[in-house]
Design a protein that fits this description.
Length: 502
């Protein structure tokens, strides 16, 4: 994502905004007041040369209308004189000079005679611009030069003739519409009385008040002015606060959906994307800040940037990749595209029968999670999004997955098997014990001295025993003395005899 940040000189500084500083006139309830006609704003919404109050005609072609019947008249060519002021007479008065130019005066009613007798004034904000309208209040004092503006009886700007001497306004003041002047970059020290002197019979004085005020909530403009743009096209977002003392600083932040907070991306008034990408889409926040009486004031506004791109290359990813698992294990099918702008609508289908074209919708999520054998089968997904007013739809190929069931477990067979194994182990243990006892109780037969009937030194541990051999073909061994009888194999007899002889 390549984002070019461009600092834009805000046009409000150095230009006039009628909504922020119209001429203000104070009137006394029950008294009278003159609403001077001014000519300093272009507006094509009015077609008649009339006076309007909050958009409603109140004086046209020498006749009073509405609530001002019998209480209004036109003087000094186009000024409006109102008598017997009442509550409800206050508001924004507009005089239509032509089909393109109007003048606006804000009437404020008061019960303070001192305020009611003050001259009309313009309220400006420090650091901003204000236009001083030339009004005609009739004859007054005499000043040295015609067609000039004066401050404290010193000429500061002239529409004709020699230029005034250098003063605090020389580098900033400039003329507009032949008789009005614009004063940019207002300072608190600029406040005072200013007189437009065209001649001794055509002159008027306005007061300029300069104050520090908190920044107003900014507005965000788009260029081009569209709710969404196509991927690859340029767009610029500009942040502007209409009211508030200068200097005003601007910054841009972008919402991070993973942290649910905003990340700072720019400290300038404008944010430009030469080739917007889908990744640039999101929520952006503009912050306007100024300082009033040493305290920082902040206002915010947000805008949603939508960048549209058609979805491409729909596919299904499977985890695990071998397309089968055993019952109880998780298989995840994920429907995915290579590119495409949100929102994307996902739809999962399962083929009702193998090879059949009939499909059943089973999910509207991007992922499908399978765990039981009944979910084995063929699956396909569909993705949809909107691009340039058209609905884009892609369908995936089918995939076949298998969830292998576990082997059946029969409880009776399991118990029988366990019991049989237990009995077998018991018999084996019993046999081993019996064999061990037999081997312990068996005594070795004593040897006999067949020649002399006397024990030899080697036979001192044996008793004299008489051996009989009967029916040797039957492999019997018999201890006559002890009455012990045991059949033996030929080999066993040979081993016993060998032991006796040795």
């Amino acid at each position: 994502m390549f984002v070019f940040l461009i600092l834009v000189l805000v046009p409000l500084q150095g230009t006039f905004s009628a909504s922020s500083n119209p001429l203000i006139v104070m009137g006394m309830i029950g008294g009278q007041v003159t609403i001077p006609c001014t000519k300093y704003k272009q507006d094509t919404s009015f077609s008649s040369s009339c006076w309007y109050l909050n958009g409603t005609a109140v004086y046209c072609s020498g006749s009073s209308m509405g609530r001002f019947v019998g209480r209004s008249q036109q003087i000094q060519t186009c000024n409006l004189l109102l008598s017997n002021l009442q509550e409800g007479d206050s508001g924004l008065f507009t005089y239509v000079w032509s089909s393109t130019h109007v003048g606006q005066v804000n009437l404020i009613l008061t019960t303070d005679p001192a305020l009611a007798g003050s001259p009309p004034y313009i309220e400006g904000f420090k650091g901003r611009s204000a236009m001083l309208p030339c009004i005609n209040m009739g004859s007054g004092g005499s000043l040295p030069k015609n067609n000039c503006w004066y401050s404290k009886e010193v000429d500061i700007f002239c529409f004709s003739g020699p230029s005034p001497r250098f003063n605090q306004f020389t580098s900033r003041i400039r003329g507009r519409d032949d008789t009005n002047v614009v004063l940019p970059d207002l300072q608190v020290t600029d406040a005072g009385l200013f007189t437009c002197y065209l001649s001794s019979s055509t002159q008027g004085t306005v007061a300029l008040k300069v104050k520090e005020t908190a920044v107003s909530r900014p507005t965000i403009t788009r260029n081009p002015d569209k709710p969404y743009i196509m991927a690859g096209t340029p767009i610029t977002l500009t942040c502007l606060s209409e009211n508030g003392s200068w200097p005003i600083s601007y910054s841009w932040r972008r919402l991070n959906p993973h942290k649910s907070s905003y990340d700072l991306i720019s400290s300038l008034a404008s944010l430009s994307f030469p080739q917007a990408e889908v990744g640039d889409a999101g929520t952006y926040e503009c912050i306007a800040t100024n300082v009033v009486n040493g305290a920082s004031r902040t206002e915010k506004a947000t805008a949603q940037l939508i960048v549209q791109s058609p979805i491409t290359n729909l596919s299904i990813s499977v985890i695990p990749k071998q397309l089968f698992v055993f019952e109880g294990q998780l298989m995840v099918l994920r429907c995915q595209v290579d590119s495409g702008s949100e929102p994307i609508t996902w739809t999962w289908y399962q083929l009702e029968e193998k090879g059949s074209a009939r499909k059943a919708i089973i999910s509207q999520e991007q992922e499908l999670r399978l765990t039981v054998p009944a979910q084995s089968g063929q699956y396909a997904c569909k993705a949809q999004n909107e691009y340039d007013g058209q609905n884009i739809t892609l369908n995936s190929r089918e995939v076949t997955v298998h969830i292998i069931p576990k082997a059946e477990v029969h409880s009776i067979a399991t118990v029988s098997l366990c019991f049989s194994v237990f009995i077998l182990i018991g018999l084996m243990v019993a046999g081993c014990v019996w064999m061990r006892e037999r081997s312990t109780d068996t005594r070795t037969p004593p040897t006999k001295d067949v020649s002399a009937g006397k024990q030899t030194p080697k036979d001192k541990y044996h008793k004299s025993t008489e051996y009989k051999t009967e029916n040797t073909s039957k492999n019997h061994y018999q201890d006559v003395e002890d009455g012990f009888y045991c059949p033996l194999s030929n080999r066993q007899m040979e081993e016993d005899v060998y032991d006796d002889l040795s």
